[in-house]
TrEMBL record:
It comes from Abrus precatorius. This is Patatin. Lipolytic acyl hydrolase (LAH). SUPFAM superfamilies: FabD/lysophospholipase-like. The nitrogen atoms of the two glycine residues in the GGXR motif define the oxyanion hole, and stabilize the oxyanion that forms during the nucleophilic attack by the catalytic serine during substrate cleavage.
Amino acid sequence: MELSKVTLEIFSKLEQQWLSHYEATTKTRILSIDGGGTTAIVAGAALIHLEDQIRVQTSDPDAQIADYFDIIAGTGIGALLAAMITADDGFGRPLYTARDAVQFIAESNRKLYNPKHTGVFRRHRRFSSSSMEKALKQVFQRKDKEGRLLTIKDTCKPLLIPCFDLKSSAPFVFSRADASESPSFNFELWKACRATSATPGLFSPFHFASVDGKTYCSAVDGGLVMNNPAAAAVTHVLHNKRDFPSVNGVEDLLVLSIGNGAPAKRVHDVRECSTSSVVDIALDGVSETVDQMLGNAFCWNRTDYVRIQAFGLGGEVTKAEEKKVLNERVLESLPFGGKRLLQETNGNRIKSFVQRLVANGKTSLPPSPCKVPPYASR
């Protein structure tokens, strides 16, 4: 009997050591989607391929991106994609697949970015705020009898969406962690997506409040400060011990950062600069700077940080454009400056990344704090 007790204690200690080692080698997985543009060609193609590969490699036709990532961040149109693939259907599952989200943007592009006329004789490049807001309310409305508008808390996984607050002259980041703490930091999802998309000159600033009406914000485009939200997501995970207690450094992270296309034509002369080109340079510069910083942070193991980007694409998301994105060779940032063109394509790099995702297994983070278990209503 005593020998059995000793044997049990020995095996219990061995099991604890094995579990602690297993937990330490499990990476926390971050997905980041850039802002920029109105058609999401690069992000759309990458997300569809990402989800398709997850289903192929797990042999699960119902698997979705949120099943294999611990946190998802997005700016601008990237925020709309991020919010759609994390929105909770009320039963702990994503409301939309990646293909659903990309298809919505393709079919609703004219509603989201509906040009409006200003002035009597001239047509200025501005978009209708009311048209976008109507489309966003429809997509983030729960599909039940109540038809309740979803909030930041109503997400399957932690979500980060940045904007810039004119009232405080500082960045403002919507996060499920803050929304879970207080209704003063919980906002309707459509408002967060509208706020991060309020590009100056194209949309008017967006004035809105939290669900309890205690926090006010006057927002413009999050891309002005965080067009590539990957760094914000990494920082959030490193300092959020409540949701990510096992993360001690970047060695515990697995990051997929998806760009949204970069212009093929570069400005080489200051005389070529227009207002729109300066904005493009600023947005592209923010994204490239973040990519360079993360490339340096992960230089010891670049398989833990993957960046998907494509250049010179335009128009709508079509099969041909998707193929171009996936077939384009990877341009990887080098430590301390410069880039190198790899033989690997974007499509192959996503496939390899999914192998690591699947090896880590499904995420174990709790679902939306607003999720009500089925038995609770009985």
